[in-house]
Amino acid sequence: MGAASCGDDGAASSSVAAPFGVCLDDAANQLYVLEGGCSRVRRIDLSAATIATVVGTGVSGSTFSPDPLAAQLSRPSGCALLAYDDGLNPTTLFFTDHDNGHVLAYYPANDTLAVVTDGLTLPAALAIDRTNHLLYVVERGTAMVSAIHAVQLPR
Fold first, then answer.
1. Within a domain: residue 133?
2. Which tens digits make up the pLDDT trace of 108-131?
3. Which SUPFAM superfamilies match (predicted)?
4. Residues 15, 3: contact at Cβ < 8 Å?
5. Looking at the domain assignment, is residue 154 inside a domain?
């Protein structure tokens, strides 16, 4: 692996700056890396062995935008991927924007970003309960696990 870099669109053998989490999309053969050091989310195409930023400007901040590459993140850390092989439901990458207190959803199919919930205290990890259609969030600042009921997960 090379030195940690905030560069982009290079070989996937480049290292990332302070990776805090990863999620694998088996169907698309892609790995999402939450890069705390450059405050962004990167996607590694495992077939092409390339890496590219999909969310974040690379500069830590708190400005939200539905345009993923215009949004500023601050230490993205925990993630959970909801992917389907049915061709009907789009893949959704849920992830925490740790220092900004958000859980965000990235939709690769239409390259958009949405706030799932905010006002959290240092959200750090996520888990999806497909049976009960819940997204669980670990908040480091309150030492609690919360369930987000507002998330509409396809049945």
1. yes
2. 989 999 999 999 999 999 999 888
3. YWTD domain
4. yes
5. no
**Residues of the domain holding 10:** 4-148
How do residues 49-68 score in pLDDT, each as one tens digit?
Answer: 999 999 999 999 999 999 99
Residue that has been written with the tokens 């990458």 in this structure? 93
**Does some domain include residue 140?**
yes
Pairing mode of beta strands 112-117, 123-129: unpaired
Closest C-alpha among 66, 65, 14, 61 to residue 42: 14
Pick from 152, 120, 113: which is nearest to 134 by CA? 152
Q: Is 29 helix (H, G, I), strand (E, B) or coil?
A: coil
- Cα 67 to its chain centre, rounded Å, is 14
The residues, any chain, with a CB within 8 Å of residue 99's CB and separated by 6 or more, are 60, 62, 74, 75, 122
Using DSSP's 3-state secondary structure scheme, residue 134 falls into: strand
Assess if residue 155 is contained within a domain.
Answer: no
